[in-house]
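Standup notes
- HV: blocked on the assembly model, inputs below
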Amino acid sequence: MTAAAPIAVALDAPDLETAARWATLVTPHVTTVKVGLELYLRYGPDVVASVRGATRVQVFLDLKLHDIPATVAGATRAVARLKPAFLTVHATGGEAMIRAAVENAGTAKIAAVTVLTSLRDGDLDALGLAGPASDAVRRLAVLAVDAGAQALVCSPQEANAVRAEVGPDITLITPGVRPSGSATQDQARVATPEEALEAGADLLVIGRPITGAPDPGAAAAAIAAVLRRLSRPQPLA
Ligand SMILES: O=c1ccn([C@@H]2O[C@H](COP(=O)(O)O)[C@@H](O)[C@H]2O)c(=O)[nH]1
């Protein structure tokens, strides 16, 4: 039996049956499945047990909470009982909000989303965020870690620089991963799985390149094999 790869498959499905089927197909090959807003808002907390399945794969709850601290504290308490491995909040919610999530997360790690991977440098001006995106990501990463976040979400393009700022103990999670030749779709700051791993990402979020494939299990297995080859110690020349 081969070890599962550090990939979180984004189960962005229109219905629970599809999400559960994708989860079953990919879990032999990946460590984590990710439940996002589409699935959670349609089916509620029960969706977590449905995708966790018999193998009890790690579940990443990507709800991107963003509200005043008291509201985020309550929302975090409400979902902590589902025991996700990670729960996301937006770093732009600020230090007190992130701290409120951390204090109420139970066993879940709070992952702060820095700058969405769909945004380009040019989008940041309109949002009033001092750019470029790489600078904003580093600023928000430091703020989030100072507030107690144990994990950060950034693009693989920033993983190296973020790692240098926050050190080895913070889990770096990178969406915006596209195998070479795949369409980028609505993602702006992208890199291949190999580049993401080499940049120091701990968990690669991959959705449509896997779930949109004719055989999601085979697509996950192929990417996992590439990552395993990279992580294996190379023989001395
Ligand atoms: O900055 C972010 C934060 C979260 N996401 C989520 O990751 C997946 C990516 O799916 P793909 O199909 O591989 O594009 C999706 O669920 C997003 O909500 C992100 O893309 N960027």
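- HV (later): unblocked. The longest helix spans residues 216-231. The chain has a mean pLDDT of 96.
- Next: hand off to the docking folks.
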